[in-house]
Write a structure and sequence with these properties.
Distance between the termini: 20 Å
Structural class: mainly alpha
Helix content: over 70%
Length: 294
């Protein structure tokens, strides 16, 4: 590895996680606001339409650098579509559907919180006892933080099934995405085309519902442009320069950052239990991320 490549990797390892965490955690709040003015299917359709428009503009503007879709091998295209369906269609569909069943958000967070552990077990060649303990501490901290902030009193079988399907989608989607080696812009463009077509078909059947106002438009633009393009590109960059199991552990931090942002935006209070759990996650995750490979 030459100096230029190493420097680029160092920048990605430092800046990409910060940007990804900030954008994605904020996305939960914008989605919460946006869904007050539309239904889940309409929101997902409009989000994919905005993302597709932006990605097409970026792709066409960099025409001198672009790789044509027709130049991709069949196996490459299959890998791109497979990971895209899991991350952009199935995960989002199951996640929003679980919320719509009335299942407590706290329970959904805890179910999805198992993703880093499952990803590490599936993608790493070997998982040391130390790493398993650190991941268990991270999850324990997430449990404490969630119990201190979110209600977990509403539970139903359908919601649990959908949450589990969302967990499996994002887990296997992240692992599959780590094996995709095509340029991120092209990869995301292809994935967004397929997600747009699928959500379009649903809208033809269900109908479109969207109340236009400043809050709904801001929420939609953030989710469609910033999250669906910016955050996903950062995720792809991280998976390119780091292992899937290390990248997945960052998902422990997303609910915590969302809780902090919600407390600031909606003037809610963070309990001592939530703060203690957050500290537990941060300390154990820092040790996990910074340890040298054995």
């Amino acid at each position: 590895m030459n100096f230029h490549t190493q420097s680029k990797q160092d920048i990605v390892n430092l800046a990409a996680p910060i940007g990804f965490l900030a954008i994605w955690s904020g996305g939960a709040i914008f989605a919460k606001v946006g869904l007050q003015y539309t239904d889940s299917w309409s929101f997902l359709f409009l989000r994919s339409a905005i993302a597709l428009s932006l990605l097409l503009a970026i792709y066409l503007k960099s025409a001198h650098k672009k790789i044509a879709i027709t130049e991709l091998k069949k196996d490459q295209l299959k890998g791109i579509i497979f990971s895209g369906l899991l991350l952009q269609v199935f995960y989002l569909t199951f996640y929003f559907s679980a919320i719509n069943t009335g299942l407590s958000l706290g329970i959904i967070i805890l179910v999805l919180g198992m993703q880093p552990i499952i990803t590490s077990l599936l993608s790493a060649n070997t998982v040391s006892v130390k790493n398993l303990i650190l991941l268990a501490i991270c999850f324990s901290g997430l449990v404490l933080s969630t119990l201190g902030y979110h209600s977990v009193d509403k539970i139903n079988a359908l919601g649990m099934i959908l949450s589990t399907l969302a967990l499996l989608s994002i887990t296997f989607g992240a692992i599959a995405q780590a094996n995709v080696k095509t340029p991120p812009i092209l990869t995301l463009l292809i994935q967004t085309i397929f997600s747009f077509l699928i959500f379009s078909a649903v809208i033809v059947y269900k109908g479109l519902s969207f109340e236009v106002n400043a809050s709904s438009l801001l929420s939609l633009v953030w989710m469609g442009a910033v999250v669906s393009v910016g955050a996903y590109l950062l995720l792809m960059l991280m998976l390119k320069y780091s292992s899937a199991d290390k990248v997945s552990t960052l998902f422990f931090l997303l609910p915590l950052l969302t809780m902090i942002l919600e407390s600031l935006v909606f003037d809610s209070t963070l309990s001592a239990l939530t703060i203690f759990g957050a500290i537990l996650v941060c300390v154990s995750l820092f040790i996990y991320q910074t340890q040298k490979p054995s």
